[in-house]
Write a structure and sequence with these properties.
Nucleotidyltransferase, domain 5; cell membrane; alpha+beta; ATPase_NBD; FtsA/MreB; membrane; 13 helices; five-stranded mixed beta sheet; Cell_div_FtsA; single chain
């Protein structure tokens, strides 16, 4: 029987941890087999600050996903976020010894390895090296250099950097939960995979993922990632403001926000009031919905302003960098009433709410296609790209345990001939560029994950 390619994504968020198991169906769509969700304890603003609590939360989510799906999880692709993430633009080049030879995947890998040696601030490590346009002997705007001739190969890169200790803490939590780490990816990139179409990435789009502890931004133009940022504010600060402003407990503040909250104060009439039970025999509290909306509005405006500052830093006012597809909002915060209208009002850009249903099979549970699960769906898609079998059927687990499952990741080196031979006239050059970038990314990640595994093994 042919082995199933079962993929698992683990979204370690500030408010929730989601483990999602899925596979591709015969139509190439993502079929979700099981989801496990637990309250995230030990994570603040996307960064692990209590290892023990985080391990417990991960194990709870994993266990629930396993029970729901009937599969035993072996390894996961995990998302990295947090306020320690920053990104830089960098340009580098290599001089080729023989310009008469065609450029191959190994040349691009050489260039990427060179960028990986960039000197970072103390304690920082490179997470992603994403090639943008290439330049060959001065000829610019080349998306796919493989198969071309030239002596000097140059490329601009989008380099994502994070704190090494934070990344290793995540690795340690996963290993201590009894599973392996098969890949790391930046959370806004995973969300983008789940909710954006290729047309939007081509036209130019800003994806804003409003989570509990952080708001992530990813900007695409001409099908290439151009800018990423993590802003250390999310839905939790709105809840805190409601808690302080209305003098109520956190649980009530969260309920108020979800059920009655609106980002647009003009929507509520002055006489709309909600009564909240008092604590331990105290009088109930009456809260005006107009005041509630004013509190939410003030904080959402602050978050959107910070994101918009990053969009301006990318340079969207330049006609060549214009984001024609506007803004896509996703994450739990995107479910706030009237947030779409507020974002349009502040930025003057077209806005839509991003649901991860574009890649999901038609019979998927409605809850899974909520913006809340965008990152988890994106991480499962990344896991499918790895082509590893990340989970096995429970009934297949009860085998004799003489031969342990080999979990070593296969490093895929791009082969020039394959790419050149398979070029077809009707194949879109953008698709080829994306496949090159994906292949390079996977190659880099395999080595990066191995590096983390070595660190964890030696630290025991």
């Amino acid at each position: 029987m042919e082995k199933e390619n079962i993929a698992v994504g683990l979204d370690i968020g500030t408010t929730k941890i989601v483990a999602m198991i899925g596979k591709k169906n015969e139509y190439g769509k993502l079929e979700i087999l099981g989801v496990g969700k637990s309250k995230s304890l030990g994570v603040a603003r996307g960064v692990v600050n209590n290892i023990t609590q985080t391990i417990q939360s991960i194990q709870q989510a994993i266990q629930e996903a396993e029970i729901n799906s009937g599969y035993k999880i072996k390894d996961v692709v995990v998302g990295i976020a947090g306020q320690h993430i920053r990104s830089i633009q960098h340009t580098d080049y290599i001089s080729r010894s023989n310009p008469e030879e065609v450029i191959g995947g190994n040349d691009i890998q050489l260039l990427i390895d060179q960028v990986n040696k960039l000197a970072m601030l103390p304690g920082e490590e490179i997470i992603h090296v994403l090639p943008q346009e290439f330049k060959i002997d001065g000829q610019s705007e080349i998306k796919e250099p493989i198969g071309m001739y030239g002596g000097r190969l140059e490329s601009s890169f989008h380099v994502v950097v994070g704190q090494a200790s934070s990344i290793r803490n995540v690795g340690r939590c996963i290993q201590s939960s009894g599973i392996e780490l098969s890949g790391l990816t930046l959370e806004p990139l995973a969300s983008a995979d789940a909710v954006l179409s290729q047309e939007e990435k081509e036209a130019g789009v800003a994806l804003i993922d409003i989570g509990g502890g952080t708001t992530d931004l990813a900007i695409f133009k001409d099908g290439i990632i151009r800018h990423t940022a993590v802003i250390p504010f999310g839905g939790n600060v709105i809840t805190d403001d409601i808690k302080e402003g209305c003098s109520i407990i956190e649980k009530q503040a969260e309920l108020l926000k979800v059920k009655f909250g609106s980002a647009w104060p003009g929507e509520n009439k002055d006489n709309e009031i909600v009564s909240i039970p008092g604590l331990r025999g105290r009088e109930p509290k009456e809260i005006s919905l107009k005041n509630l909306s004013k509190i939410i509005h003030a904080r959402v405006v602050e978050i959107v302003d910070q994101v918009f500052t990053e969009v301006k830093a990318y340079g969207h006012e330049d006609p060549r960098k214009k984001l024609i597809a506007g803004i896509v909002l996703t994450g739990g915060g995107a479910q706030l009433k009237h947030i779409k209208q507020l974002v349009e009002y502040i930025t003057g850009m077209d806005t839509r709410i991003g649901y991860p249903n574009e890649h999901l099979a038609g019979n998927s549970d409605e809850e899974i296609s909520s913006p809340l699960y965008a990152t988890a769906v994106g991480l499962v898609m990344k896991s499918i790209e790895n082509k590893t079998q990340s989970a096995v059927r429970m009934d297949a687990v009860e085998q004799p345990k003489e031969a342990p499952v080999q979990r070593q990741m296969v490093v895929q080196t791009p082969v020039v001939n394959e790419v050149v031979d398979e070029e077809k006239d009707e194949q879109n050059s953008n698709e080829k560029h994306n496949s090159t970038v994906n292949r390079i990314q996977r190659n880099f990640f395999d080595r990066y994950v191995d590096k983390i595994k070595d660190f964890l093994d030696n630290a025991e």
